[in-house]
Prior knowledge:
Blueprint lengths: L15 E3 L13 H13 L1 E9 L12 E7 L2 E5 L8 H6 L4 E4 L2 H10 L6 E4 H7 L7 H9 L1 E3 L15 H12 L1 H14 L3 H13 L22 H21 L3 H4 L2 H10 L4 H5 L7 H5 L1 H12 L22 H4 L1 H21 L3 H4 L2 H9 L7 H10 L4 H21 L10
Parallel strand pairs: 1-7, 2-5, 5-6
Antiparallel strand pairs: 2-3, 3-4
Amino acid sequence: MTSRAETGPSSEEEAAPxxxxxxxxxxxxxxxxxxxxxxxxxxxxxxxxxxDAERASGYRYSARAYLVQLRRAGAGxxxxxxxALPDLSSLGAALADTEWVLHAxxxxxxxxxxxxxxxxxxxxxxxxxxxxxxPRVGLGAMVLxxxxxxxxxxxxxxxxxxxxxxxxxxxxxxxxxxxxxxLRDVLEERLRxxxxxxxxxxxxxxxxxxxxxxxxxxxxxxTSGMHRVRxxxxxxxxxxxxxxxxxxxxxxxxxPGRVLPDGAIVEAALASPxxxxxxxxxxxxxxxxxxxxxxxWVDAIRRGLDTPDSALPEVSPPHDSPPxxxxxxxxxxxxxxxxxxxxxxxxxxxxxxxxxVENLLTPDTVRRLAWSPPPVADVATVAEFLRRxxxxxxxxRLTAGPLAGALERAGxxxxxxxxxxxx
Length: 423
């Protein structure tokens, strides 16, 4: 099939539908001997290797991979079943010196690492699209806009733990890596022409070298609707219900929301019923599954309500990040002035270089700098501050000077205030 990359973006009506993998739909590899053959084939292939993984988000508790897709010139496409073949370290080793091409790599790298596959070099097509300022960076949209192909994307949210996997799902999975290297090559050239290729490779190197994400502190605080819960004892109920749900979900390998929705946790915390009858009177607990475990939920609610005062969670937990920016004008007007100036400087740079603000410098880094700037905020000290907060060198080169200037102007113009970051 001839690429349309040279002719520019295509509308959906003009796009060439890409409905079948060039080499057909391969059967998933499930036997050790099949994996050995694939390892040999991919080791003998040439050029970058396109890699993708399918999870069962929303269906299963874990974020493990339930299918791994690969394609490389000279090796073709392979679909590997990591349920039947949980150790893919031999495949990872065969590709250790090969550039991996992924889309939204940060989503797939953790589950690939679980099966023994870790890249030393990678190219992230989604991140490349962001650095190029593309308005749409989903894989289907980028393949359409860059290559002029329409990819079928109807099974993205499927339950990939299903066995056997339906043939249409396997076709979809194979197509996800079919043109990934072709897309990568066009994006690399566009990055080169835009003077952003060095930026991209710094970003890709940081992705490949990033350690596994640290466990969340108080993950129960991410319960949707938590903003409605303002009393410490009700927060303790949320915590106990979340932990009880998490235990059931982990044991059953089921997505927590399928065991008990977040909305039910919040409503139970607000109502705080102590009996099964009172719990079941809440409309959100009229489902069969939630009713079946009603005694478990009531026990959790009682534990929360009976928590000693000394063990109740704080409404706002201790943290080392700045307070919400909306409170700055009252708490520290000088910091608010610095933040406004810093945001304006970063926004102007992002517009100038045609990329999203958050890809130029993370909003958290900008807030931290404005809240607690170096005592002498010159270019060198701002640059060092940015490096300590994991900014890449290309970001430091672009932003340190303008940010130092913004802080200096804000210091001249802002009203007198307490010490930076003061209460």
